[in-house]
Amino acid sequence: MSRHLNVAMGQLGPIQRADSRTAVVKRLCTMMREAKSLGAQIIVYPELALTTFFPRWYIDDVQELHSFYETSMPNIATQPLFDLARQLEIGFYLGYAELAREADGLHRYNTAILVNTRGEIVDKYRKVHLPGHSEHEPWRRFQHLEKRYFEPGPGFHVRRAFGGVMGMALCNDRRWAETYRVLALQGCEMVFIGYNTPVHNAPAPQHDDLSLFHNQLSLQAGAYQNGMWAVGVAKAGLEEGVDSIGGSCIVAPSGEVVARCITKDDEVQLARCDLDWCAVYKRTTFNFDLHRQPHAYGLITEKKGETLAADGTQWGVDR
Ligand code: CDT
Fold first, then answer.
1. Which residue range or ranges hold the CN hydrolase domain (predicted)?
2. pTM value?
């Protein structure tokens, strides 16, 4: 028996600050039509897929800042995407900035939703690992203010959808082993991960040449070590003067890349993913019940700044 899911990546090229939501949704719809024509059952879009990557700017004016967030979903600008999904009977994953009015006030999240083939939101995820910094740092060529503009979500969870057990994560989450493992411990068979990754990493410019490699390394390791599919989708290219990596790819539970985007523009690529390929890994090499040793993993007590290098560097404190 096999459970195939045809998954499309809807990689986006750059979105400039002046580009309207309407124009972006039009691009997303064009890719959705192409994905459907290729036989896709779901299309995966990037993180913060409706606007330019605004955390690159220090924005003092709250009204201006909040213009990058969505206060409801769907909304007038995004409704055409939901309508098209229902019409074409195709699902999608979409990342966006969420401004949520909760009982105790306004909260800002870096969010992704999973939408079924009837155009209904069936799951929502709020990004856990927020990279960058929270204060203006003028020495940088551009800012990365996710820590200022978002608060971390509550955690990772899975959802039964599209014939399997699905998980969601966002960008920096893909670099953390915990992301995949926490999902895999809940039985995750496929994780969707949208991202925006500048080529230039200001605190560690010596990593710039490795940015594509680290992207793929993280996705491949996460997929293999947890017996799951990983679908990573970029917003790529030169956006407001900042170059971001492409490299969107679909990784099988074997750790092999089975599909990849080759441009840094709007691009659709597809893979036929057998969710049953997860089982052999989950039953053998990564049979958690049989081989994990949780008693050995709880020895480290975490206290920020207490991990000392030989030269006295405090890893949790230094940049
Ligand atoms: N969006 C996002 O999470 N980007 C980060 C950039 C890291 S540099 C601050 C990433 O991990 O790709």
1. 5-275
2. 0.96
